[in-house]
Amino acid sequence: MASRTTEPCSCDTFVALPPATVGSRVVFGKNSDRPSDEVQEVVYFPAASHKAGDKLECTYIEIEQAAKTYAVVLSRPSWIWGAEMGANEHGVCIGNEAVWGREEVCNNEALLGMDLLRLGLERADTAENALTVLVDLLEKYGQGGNCMESHMAFTYHNSFLIADRKEAWVLETSGKYWAAEKIEEGVRNISNQLSITTRIDREHPKMRDYAKSKGWWDGKKEFDFAAVYSYVNTARMTTSRGRYCDGYKLLNKHKGNITSETMMEILRDKESGINMEGGFMTTGSMVSILPQEPNLPCIHFFTGTPDPDRSVFKPFIFVPNITQLLKTSSPTFGHDDPVKEQPRFLTKPDRRHELYKQHESAAVVMETFKEKGKEMLEQIRKLEKEKISKMESILQNGCLDVNQAVNLFSQSVEEEINTYA
């Protein structure tokens, strides 16, 4: 049995579907809240074909590789194989959350929730197919292992918000058991608690029997997943104080008028704790626009830096021959990486990428020299608005210059770095 040594505070993920959004679009967003000294990178992996029998090395374990993997863009802690959030070439987006409940968390090394997230993106072309990939892998390999680059144990179960152009799914797990809820309209968010109650659209075939065997459910009362598998008072979930409730309120406050900028505003909200500060803080953020019209491109914005309130959401669009995202990619250490050595995490290398370093220096300026910091913040916010405006023009006109899209994210990173200089 593993002990959790850190308070359960980590991440918020959101989705809005018509008619809650402006236009025929699904809007997805996530803040990744991680240890404040952890570097989050934004990386791209092209689609690939693999030979029968190929193996895949994830963060801790090796699994069977799929015959084909889709192109993905990921925002991830730079020491792991998986990701905190990301998207694939088919417009599938996934964000995950740490959750705890009655079932003890196992610290045996298996697939991290972040590994499952990346595998879902690489292997599925719809949100529901991604859900199937995740639960099949969960059944086969299990979930477990330290989720922090430290000798101190930080382990948890996982929940996922999975979205595509037409629908979204919430998948919540407890060990190998799980429940899933389908969202076809309106808004939904997940945080660090189980939130699926009596509306269950898919589930592990033995989930209810296991709950009965543990004495958590009598088999007579209406089955409420969150109430049975955790200690959540589901009657007060959307009214009691907390990030899940505050996120729910912020989404509903803007319901009917939600855009990508609305989602960015929610992710920047510090009063609610959604933009987290302290020992655990928001180390990376993502917002995606998934148009329901299949001829329009999905647009994914990533910060690649801590604190979205003083970061730039930069756009990425899937096109052939994407320029590698060198300035948001952390250095690699191969087999000498302390993550790969036994015992793990005896040392901690410098994993900062170029954008992270420049942003780190700019953050010192913003805190030390108020006027200069204010000017710099205005400049990066102006840059962001320009990028959002250009992306909106693409969506309105349906005209995408593929040659420009190849360098879209990398060019935006360069412009951000030049602003800090």
Q: Summarize the amount of helix as a percent range.
A: 25-40%
Provide the residue-averaged pLDDT.
95
Computed structural class: alpha+beta
Q: Oligomeric form of this entry?
A: single chain
> Biggest sheet, strands in spatial order?
3-8-9-10-11-12-13-15
Shape: globular
Strand-residue proportion: 15-25%
Low-pLDDT parts are 1-8
| Secondary-structure element series | EEEEEEEEEEHHEEEEEHHHHEEEHHHH
In total, the number of strands is 18
Number of helices: 10
Description:
The protein is of the alpha+beta class. It has helices at 113-123, 127-141, 207-213, 225-229, 243-253, 260-267, 354-368, 370-397, 402-405, 408-420, and strands at 12-17, 25-35, 40-45, 48-49, 55-57, 62-64, 68-69, 72-77, 85-88, 93-99, 157-163, 168-174, 177-183, 186-190, 202-203, 280-291, 299-302, 314-316. Helix 1 packs across helix 2. The longest helix has 28 residues, at 370-397.
Blueprint (SSEs and pairs):
Layout: E1 12-17, E2 25-35, E3 40-45, E4 48-49, E5 55-57, E6 62-64, E7 68-69, E8 72-77, E9 85-88, E10 93-99, H1 113-123, H2 127-141, E11 157-163, E12 168-174, E13 177-183, E14 186-190, E15 202-203, H3 207-213, H4 225-229, H5 243-253, H6 260-267, E16 280-291, E17 299-302, E18 314-316, H7 354-368, H8 370-397, H9 402-405, H10 408-420
Antiparallel strand pairs: 1-2, 1-14, 2-16, 3-8, 4-7, 5-6, 8-9, 9-10, 10-11, 11-12, 12-13, 13-15, 16-17, 17-18
Helix pairs in contact: 1-2, 7-8, 7-10, 8-10
Pfam families: Peptidase_C69
Protein name: Secernin 3
GO biological process, one term: proteolysis
